[in-house]
Write a structure and sequence with these properties.
Blueprint lengths: L12 H9 L1 H12 L2 H18 L9 H36 L5 H6 L2 H7 L4 H12 L4 H8 L3 H23 L1 H5 L8
Helix pairs in contact: 2-3, 2-4, 3-4, 6-9, 7-9, 8-9
């Protein structure tokens, strides 16, 4: 009494009529099980699409409504499986973030001295922006006032300076640039 997996033929008009006539009952069925009208509507819409694709394979003696309730039960199970997988993934990310630590201040100060050398090879305004904002931790707004440009211009300048420095580090350091420079052995 289940839909056969063969497809191709369009659903019979009486099947479509039975499914659409029971729309509200199907929605109530789902809402009761998932606890949210919006989620129930999403599940029902997806189930209707699947049912229309497969309804042509219903046997003549099978009730379309009973068959569709089985489709909905499976959709609810899939919904909870997906929600559970999403919850586990979110918990894993949260645990990873909670376990990760900022490197100690001493490590940050020791981070790849070649970066400072390479920063000096950039355009003077880029080198100054990086020195003040990244190394000395001056706020962008304050840096903008110091050099007489808008905060937006200063933000663009430091962005371009970072990109230019990133390219220089990649050219000079190769692997170190890709994996982090906490134990620099660059020349």
């Amino acid at each position: 009494m289940t839909a056969r997996r063969e497809g191709g033929s369009p659903p019979k008009p009486e099947v479509l009529a039975a499914l659409t006539a029971n729309h509200r009952a199907f929605l109530d069925f789902l809402e009761h099980r998932v606890g949210s009208r919006a989620q129930a509507e999403d599940i029902l819409q997806e189930a209707f699409v699947r049912a229309i694709e497969r309804a042509g394979a219903l046997r003549d003696d099978e009730s379309a409504v009973a068959w569709f309730y089985r489709v909905l039960r499976n959709a609810v199970i899939d919904h909870y499986r997906h929600a559970d997988a999403s919850r586990r993934a979110a918990e894993a990310v949260a645990a990873e973030l909670a376990a990760s630590e900022e490197p100690p201040e001493a490590w940050r100060r020791e981070a790849c001295r070649c970066v400072l050398r390479l920063a000096a090879t950039l355009k003077p305004e880029y080198a100054l922006a990086l020195q003040r904002i990244e190394v000395e931790e001056v706020p962008v707004r304050e840096f903008a006032e110091e050099v007489g440009i808008s905060s937006q211009n200063a933000a663009v300048r430091v962005f371009r300076a970072r990109e230019a420095l990133r390219r220089q580090v990649a050219l000079s350091c190769r692997t170190c640039a890709e994996h982090g420079c906490l134990d620099c052995t660059c020349p």
